[in-house]
Specification:
Blueprint lengths: L5 E5 L8 H11 L6 E5 L1 H10 L3 H8 L4 H5 L14 H11 L13 E8 L5 E4 L4 H8 L9 E3 L2 E5 L8 H6 L4 E5 L28 H13 L16 H23 L4 E3 L14 H14 L1 H8 L3
Length: 307
């Protein structure tokens, strides 16, 4: 008998995406290795690191991240096309995800990343070519990262059209698909009052007075990264508002896509307490990823008896 192919769809979810590391790690420890890995946004990052055999390096690095480290990634350039320092970002991707010359088709494990064509809203599947180009396109969350130009198209975050890419796994030949939805418990969550920030954190400033003024504005309203005590009458911070809007959109799209193309098994880590930019909470996210696999282990074994 021909062995059935197992695919895993790693969903979008910003800082919560480090839980993908824990999920893959826990599955591997049980002798479960996917034949096909498809990822959207942060799922594309972790998936690319996994198929490039850099996942242990990525885990070690993200576990050491602090708020200060994350702040160093933030700046505003003169074109105002994003808040992330592209040089630092490229160094991170090159060191812990894949090299510039690594091609998707060279991977022993099938891989695909999903992005969105900005002009048309069409879904784009990256199944060959430079893996870092695919990752950058898939993770280009509007407002944080600049759009990526590829084949005369401007591409942005794949979470806008396919947050949990089950359909891509099946199109690549997966007979059984495990999907990971990082955003299932976000809508309707109760926000706790943030703790008082112990010390101010400075963001890198990259230009003249206007650029620095906008950078200061960004820091002031980045409530998820630089929390301060606020009353109920104050409006959400800039990134809280962006995050809430993205959550609503992706929740609605995810529900619709999964209803029309359901996976054989759905893993949904409990991550609503981790905010959009709280990338320094990797230890919590990874641990919850591992735990989410343990909770579903009987169902996983039942599904994978066919593999």
């Amino acid at each position: 008998m021909t062995k059935l192919k197992l695919g895993i769809a790693l969903g979008s979810g910003s800082a919560r995406g480090w839980s993908h590391i824990g999920i893959l790690k826990a599955l591997n420890e049980k002798g479960i290795f996917p034949d096909i890995v498809c990822g959207t946004s942060v799922g594309a990052i972790v998936g690319a690191s996994y198929v490039s055999n850099n996942i242990k390096k990525l885990e070690s690095w993200v576990r050491t991240l602090t708020k200060i480290d994350i702040a160093r990634f933030l700046e505003i350039n003169h074109s105002f096309n994003g808040f992330v320092n592209q040089e630092r970002l490229h160094h991170f991707l090159h060191a812990y995800v894949a090299g510039d010359s690594v091609l998707i088709e060279e991977s022993e494990t099938q891989y695909a990343a999903i992005s969105t064509e900005l002009a048309t809203g069409r879904e784009v599947w990256h199944m060959d070519g430079p893996i870092l180009e695919a990752v950058c396109a898939s993770m280009s969350l509007p407002g944080l990262f600049p759009a990526i130009k590829s084949q005369k198209r401007w591409l942005v975050d794949g979470g806008l059209v396919n947050p949990v890419p089950v359909s891509v796994c099946k199109a690549l030949g997966a007979d059984i698909v495990i999907a990971v939805n990082l955003n299932g418990d976000l809508i309707g969550r109760h926000y706790n009052a943030p703790e008082q920030s112990s010390a101010p954190v400075k963001v890198v400033k990259a230009g003249g007075p206007l650029v620095n003024k906008v950078t200061d504005f960004m820091v002031e309203y980045t409530g998820s990264l630089f929390p301060s005590v606020k009353s109920d009458s104050q409006p959400p911070g800039l990134f809280d508002a962006i995050a809430g809007s993205v959550h609503i959109t992706q929740d609605r799209i995810t529900r619709s896509r999964l209803a029309g193309d359901p996976p054989d098994l759905l893993i949904a880590p409990r991550l609503s307490h981790i905010g959009l930019l709280e990338i320094y909470r990797a230890n919590e996210a990874i641990s919850e990823g591992e735990e989410s696999v343990r909770r579903l282990l009987p169902e996983i074994k039942d599904v994978l008896e066919l593999v």
